[in-house]
Write a structure and sequence with these properties.
The chain has helices at 2-25, 33-48, 69-81, 85-95, 97-109, 112-122, 126-131, 139-154, 158-174, 178-194, 201-221, 223-229, 240-246, 251-258, 260-275, 279-296, 302-330, 335-367, 371-383, 397-404, 420-432, 436-445, 455-461, and strands spanning 54-55, 62-63, 389-391, 407-408, 450-453, 473-478, 482-486. By secondary structure, it is mainly alpha-helical. The chain has 2 domains: 2-30 and 96-365, no CATH class; 371-486, Rossmann fold (3-Layer(aba) Sandwich), CATH 3.40.50. The strands form 2 sheets. A 5-stranded mixed sheet has the order 4-3-5-7-6. Strands 1-2 form a two-stranded antiparallel sheet. α6 (112-122) runs antiparallel to α17 (302-330).
Length: 488
């Protein structure tokens, strides 16, 4: 009866988290810039049955390299739900994290009520909530899969090893972030060895399989990138001008997007778990340690690392809360237990749910194109030649290639893209220069036919003076954004 009640509450938590996600994602009809890239790739699969391997629109035409599994999954759902699937399916997968965290927490503390409480916490982690909202993000599936693998590994036996192998293989095919899980297992092994804790043979074999299969599959899929960039492939061919900020780890930003309460309880749980030599906490600690090291070395994008780090800390916090609640239960003032729970619930609302909702609302307003912007791009699609090139800032590239279906000079899909640093510098120079001669040289260099000027660019650089030459630039749209056709 208790288990059935717990499942009913868990389903309710899942529905609450799902409703919250859908509420924000459907406040707009559009996706963010990265979401339009996912949309294009899945559309190509729907139309041809094959992944897009050469993108004629990105960077005026270039080879693309990625694992298409996520796009195949979305394509299947788009057959049934249409474009609605681009928001609905990621929301469903993301919300399943609460189920995985419940199972993990229950295995760590064997307390239904506390496990449900931790599951609720995991549903509103700001770093994960906003980054999987309107981008059709692959991490909406990758994060739950990784933590399900941790759940399977905790009490791995002959019955579960088949599932572990299958999901491990699936994660490796899904995304290179599977390497993070492998490094987490390696860190777990080192932590266990340092505490003289013996690892079961079946776990050791599973770890070896995971390490070998993950790195082999990643090399197989991204072989061309490895051969071209070597070790530097870690930095994804990001332009040198923004490389520092791209991997910059902000400790204060972590407090806000992870949640101060999560950070405190999570780190305390890890310290206590290591001190008490709790094998299950050491496993979670391995992932935390691997993530922190990669973030510190600037080998992992902070927005990605913080998603995994935040969930791991939420899971580890179950251990801290369980110890504290057990202590309160032994005191002569048992009513303090209820007071503590109520205080923690209030703090969770402040440190997790409120930032999630505030950031989500801001993200939806600022990261998606406006209706007018879409109208402008649709007009260009219908009223220009198929092979024209549009120049736009870095954050607008995928929106233009999907909506306008025109070639762009630059976008943020950097891997295997040609001369990213040079192109980024030229585009920035084009918008910031006061010299029309310099602007025309860049326009000729990339055969630019239209200049796309969003409001963000004007706020950053001010009014572009050279665009006023009516002989060379014909104004098409004068709102936000502005669009000029090159005529000289």
């Amino acid at each position: 009866m208790q288990i059935r009640r717990s499942y009913k509450i868990l389903i309710l938590i899942f529905l609450v988290v799902l409703f919250a996600r859908l509420y924000f994602s459907f406040q707009t009809s559009y996706l963010d810039n990265s979401g339009y890239l996912v949309k294009r790739y899945s559309e190509n699969i729907l139309e041809t049955g094959k992944p897009l391997l050469y993108d004629q629109l990105s960077y005026n035409g270039r080879e693309v390299l990625y694992s298409p599994l996520w796009h195949y999954i979305l394509s299947i759902f788009r057959i049934v739900f249409g474009d609605l699937a681009l928001k609905l399916i990621p929301a469903l997968f993301s919300s399943l994290l609460v189920v995985v965290v419940y199972l993990l927490s229950k295995r760590i503390v064997d307390n239904n009520e506390l496990a449900l409480f931790i599951a609720l916490m995991s549903g509103f982690i700001p770093a994960f909530f906003i980054n999987t909202l309107i981008s059709a993000s692959i991490y909406s599936l990758a994060v739950p899969i990784m933590f399900y693998l941790i759940y399977l590994f905790m009490d791995l036996d002959k019955e579960k090893v088949g599932r572990f192998v299958a999901f491990s293989f699936f994660l490796s095919l899904l995304h290179p972030v599977s390497i993070l899980f492998s490094l987490g297992l390696l860190a777990y092994y080192l932590l266990s060895s340092s505490e003289n804790m013996k690892i079961e043979r079946i776990k050791g074999e599973a770890m070896v399989f995971n390490l070998i299969s993950t790195f082999f599959l990643q090399f197989l899929i991204y072989k061309k990138a490895f051969l071209e960039y070597g070790f530097s492939v870690i930095w994804h061919n990001v332009p040198s001008q923004i490389l520092g900020s791209y991997f910059d780890f902000d400790i204060f930003g972590m407090l806000y997007t992870t949640g101060a309460l999560t950070l405190i309880f999570g780190l305390a749980g890890i310290v206590l778990g290591i001190a008490k030599k709790k094998d299950k906490i050491l496993l979670v600690s391995g992932l935390v340690l691997a993530t922190l090291i990669l973030l510190w070395l600037r080998l992992l994008e902070p927005r990605i690392g913080l998603m995994f780090l935040s969930v791991a800390l939420v899971v580890a916090s179950a251990f801290t809360l369980n110890i504290f609640l057990s202590y309160l239960g032994k005191t002569k003032l048992p009513y303090h237990r209820l007071s503590f729970v109520m205080i923690v619930l209030g703090l969770i609302i402040l440190s997790l749910a409120v930032p999630s909702f505030v950031l989500a609302s801001k993200h939806v307003k600022e990261s998606v194109p406006s209706a007018y912007e879409i109208l402008v791009l649709e007009w260009i699609k219908e009223n220009s030649l198929p092979d024209v090139t549009i120049v736009a800032p870095l954050g607008k590239g995928h929106i233009i290639t999907d909506v306008a279906e025109k070639r762009t000079v630059l976008d943020d899909n950097f891997l295997l893209a040609p001369r990213t640093s040079e192109r980024y510098s030229d585009v920035e120079k084009l918008y910031s220069t006061k010299s029309e001669v310099e602007a025309l040289e860049i326009i000729a260099k990339y055969n630019i036919d239209y200049v796309f000027i969003p409001i963000e660019t004007e706020l950053k650089y001010g009014k572009i003076k050279w665009i006023d030459d009516e002989y060379c630039f014909k104004g098409i749209f004068f709102g936000t954004p502005k669009v000029y056709q090159v005529s000289c």
